[in-house]
Amino acid sequence: MMFAPTYLQARRDFRRQALALGAEVQAIEIEAGGLRAEDGSRLSIEIASFGEAPKALVISSGLHGVEGFAGSAVQSLCMQRGWPQDRRLVLLHALNPAGMSSLRRVNENNVDLNRNFLAPGESYCGSPEHYARLNSLLNPKRPVSALEFSMRSAWQIARFGYGALKQAIAGGQYDYPEGLFWGGDCLQEGPQKLLALLPELLADVEQIDWIDVHTGLGVSGEPTYLVEASKSSADYKVLRERFGERVQAWDEDDGVAYAIRGGFPGALKEIFGDRLTMLTCEFGTIKATRVLRNLISDNQVYHYGGDQSLAAKRMRDAFDRQTPAWRQRVLLRAGALLDRCFIEG
Ligand SMILES: [Zn+2]
C-alpha cells in the first residue's frame, strides 16, 4: 500500500521496500522533546541510498509533517518503478517525523521547518508587514465558525488584496511562536542533523536533481513545481524547458507561490551550489481558503484545547486527501515527473 495510514506504518513500509531492493538505509533519530512513535520507538528520518553514480536524484518527503503521506507514496512509487542504472537514487523519508506522526504540518516546537533554514548570521526575528494585523484572524484563542472565518477573511482580502495577503500570511514569521508559519527561534534538531549529514552523503555526486514533495497548494491532485528563481531569470527558463509548464517561479503573477524566508531550497543551494537543481513539488488538495481555515483550527486546538480528532481530520483533508481518485492522480502525475527527471539523462 503506497499511502500509509500512519507515520509508523509509512516508515516500516519504506524501510522494508528499500532494504528489499538492496539500499543502504540509515536513520537519523530525532529526540523531539521526548515524543515517540506509536510503538514507543524514537522518531526518525530514514535515508535510503541506492548505487553510486555522478548524477543523483534525491526525493525528500514530509518536511511539513502531515504532507509526508503523499511524499512517502511518491518515494514508494519511484522504488517500484525503478530508475536508470547511471543514476544514484537517494530518498529522505519524513524530514519532520514529529509532525507526520501527530498529523501536524509543523514540528514538535510548532516550527514550520520550511521557514526554519535562515542563512548564517540572519536573526530569527521579524514578520511580514501585515502579519500583526492578521494575528487575531490567523491565531484565534477560541474556535471560529466557517461563516465567521469566511466573512473576516473576505474583509481582509478586500482590504489588502489576495497577493499581499498570501505573502503576509505564509511568507514566514519569527515573532509569534504560537502562530501559523512560525520559523522558530533557532535551527531545529531535525534540520540541524540533516544538514550536518548531507555534504558527505552526496560528496561524490556532480549533479543533483532534488524533488521535495509537499501538498496543499494548487489544483486538487495536480502538481506545481515551485522553483527558487524569478520568472525573468535564466534558471527559470532552463527549468521550464526541462520540466515544462508546471514550473512556477515564486513571483508568478497569478501563481500559487509566495516568497518565503528560511526555506529548505536556499539551505541546500548553500551546500551544493550549482550542482543542485531543485523543485518543490506541490500537489493541490482543497481550496486555499479551506486549507488555511483547517490550519487555523489545528493550531487553535493544539494551543488552547478543543476537539483533537476533528482537527486531525481537517489536517488530513487539507494535506492528505483520503479519496482513491486523488491518490491515483497524485501517483500518475508523480510518475510523469519521474520520467522527466530521467529523460534528460
Ligand atoms: Zn509544504
Based on the model shown, name its key terms.
eight-stranded mixed beta sheet; 345 residues; Aminopeptidase
Please state the second-level CATH architecture: 3-Layer(aba) Sandwich
The best one-word shape is: globular
Radius of gyration: 19 Å
Low-pLDDT residue spans: none
Helix content: 40-55%
Give structural notes.
This protein has 345 residues and is an alpha/beta fold. It has a single domain (7-124, 178-343), classed as Aminopeptidase, CATH 3.40.630.10. It has helices spanning 7-20, 68-81, 97-101, 131-138, 146-160, 162-170, 189-201, 234-243, 264-272, 288-304, 308-319, 324-343; strands at residues 24-30, 43-50, 55-61, 87-93, 207-220, 223-227, 247-249, 276-284. The protein has an eight-stranded mixed beta sheet, sandwiched between helices. Strand 6, helix 8 (234-243) and strand 7 form a beta-alpha-beta unit. Helix 10 runs antiparallel to helix 11 (308-319). The model has no long low-confidence stretch (mean pLDDT 93). Residues 64, 67, 114, 214, 216 line the site of zinc ion.
Concise structural overview:
This protein is of the alpha/beta class and 345 residues long. It has helices spanning 7-20, 68-81, 97-101, 131-138, 146-160, 162-170, 189-201, 234-243, 264-272, 288-304, 308-319, 324-343, and strands at 24-30, 43-50, 55-61, 87-93, 207-220, 223-227, 247-249, 276-284.
Secondary structure elements and their pairing?
Layout: H1 7-20, E1 24-30, E2 43-50, E3 55-61, H2 68-81, E4 87-93, H3 97-101, H4 131-138, H5 146-160, H6 162-170, H7 189-201, E5 207-220, E6 223-227, H8 234-243, E7 247-249, H9 264-272, E8 276-284, H10 288-304, H11 308-319, H12 324-343
Helix pairs in contact: 1-2, 2-12, 5-6, 10-11
Bound molecules: zinc ion.
Residues 64, 67, 114, 214, 216 line the site of zinc ion.
